[in-house]
Amino acid sequence: MGTFVHAVEDEMLCSSLLPDKVPYFNAPIYLQNKSVIGKVDEILGPINEVYFSIKMGEGMVANSFKKGDKVYIGGDKLLPIERFLPKPKVAGGVTSKPMLSVEPMSSG
Fold first, then answer.
1. Which family does it belong to (predicted)?
2. Would 99 be classed as within a structural domain?
3. What is d(CA 67, CA 33) in angstroms, rounded to the nearest whole number?
4. Each residue of 25-77: pLDDT tens digit?
């Protein structure tokens, strides 16, 4: 998912290694051995250079990580980047159907 950049207060700042995915808020973040270290707190940066902060779990210390340490996320906790991009306009637009005119029936 990403690599550790530096500690910010008691959280980790990480850069994403997946250019086409964005993590869910509050998604658990793991070490390679699958132990949980915390949860995604904030997502930052431009769409082509995503960063995210990790709120550390109990007993975890952000300063104990080294620059470049990798962190992982479950594949079901990622959104496609397309969800954050503007939608292309549909060619042709909406066509309207002609309205029928209804004339009152005459009695008689």
1. Belongs to the GAR1 family.
2. no
3. 18
4. 999 999 999 999 999 999 999 988 999 999 999 999 999 999 999 999 999 99
Is the residue at 105 inside a domain?
no
> In the predicted model, what is the mean pLDDT of residues 17-27?
95
In a domain, 24, yes or no: yes
8 A C-beta contact, residue 6 and residue 13: yes
DSSP labels for 43-93? EES-TTS-EEEEEEPTT--GGGS-TT-EEEE-GGGEEEGGGGSPPPPPTT-
What is the rounded CA–CA span in Å between residue 71 and residue 57? 14
108: pLDDT strictly greater than 90: no
pTM above 0.85, yes or no: no
d(CA 55, CA 41): 6
Q: How many domains does the chain have?
A: 1
Between CA 58 and CA 64, with CA 61 as vertex, the angle to 5 degrees is 150
The answer to whether residue 97 sits within a structural domain is: no
Domain that holds residue 59: 2-84
